[in-house]
Amino acid sequence: MAKPLFKVDMMITKFSDRLYADLNRDLNNLFLEEDQVIKRLEKSIHACLKYLRKLKDYCKLNDPSTPAEEIVFFKQIKPKFKSQLIFFQSLLNIEIRKPIGDGKVVSDYFSNEVKILHHFFESNLSFYQYVRTQSSYLDEYYFVRGNYDVHLDPDQCIIDFDPTFSTTHDHKLAQVLASELLQEHLEQSILKTNQREAIMHFDSEFKDFDWKQTKCALIELIYSWHATEAFGKKNLKSIVKFIEKSFNISLGNFYDTYDWLCGRPSPTVYIDEMREAFLLRIQKKLK
Hints:
Blueprint: H1 5-33, H2 37-61, H3 67-97, H4 103-123, H5 125-132, H6 139-142, H7 170-202, H8 215-227, H9 236-247, H10 254-262, H11 269-286
Helix pairs in contact: 1-2, 1-3, 2-3, 3-7, 4-7, 8-9, 8-10
């Protein structure tokens, strides 16, 4: 007996939502725990692969059996997982090739990567417009397995993919989503690099004046400053933005980090460490 359509859709959606939340949790933990960028990106790629395999295994056991189910899976679910993999793989490639030099050299390098992304969007303009306008009139050709219309610019790599886990355009949609994430990341990197360069030009004393402790440690301090109104009545988000700009650092989803800190055996590891270091310094002075 066939399963009701809405029930299958709900099963796939609920499972994928939980799985995607778990993926984001793992990626956020890596962001907090691994300070070496290349190692963090490598671990992030492996995490994305792990969850994409879990999604594929689930799909095999709960195979979408109607065009409507396939469209839900291959348009709304699979691409958001695959886009994370493409995003982190692209970031790793960019980081490995990043030149050593002053801020202008690095900023120009990032700007060139943005131009490459613009070329991708222009080369896939009709599909990109279809995605941006949230159209659906070609969904049965783009996101249903077994359809291959040569006039709709199908992904030629489909021949190398698993036909039970691929359509002609789900990979291309993942590329679009990843490219949007990558463009935002690069533009933020350019902005931070230029701001840093401006500060260095203004006063060389501030060179390499970056936060050297963990992101968790800084978030401990930010929540403490907010709780004690160290910056007056400023809201938490404003304080975070100020600290990120001042210390040339990105703190990611600091709300999730706070939840993670609250779950630790000792939520105030860095604050306790600071207190001990400060008291030790006082003791040395008083001797």
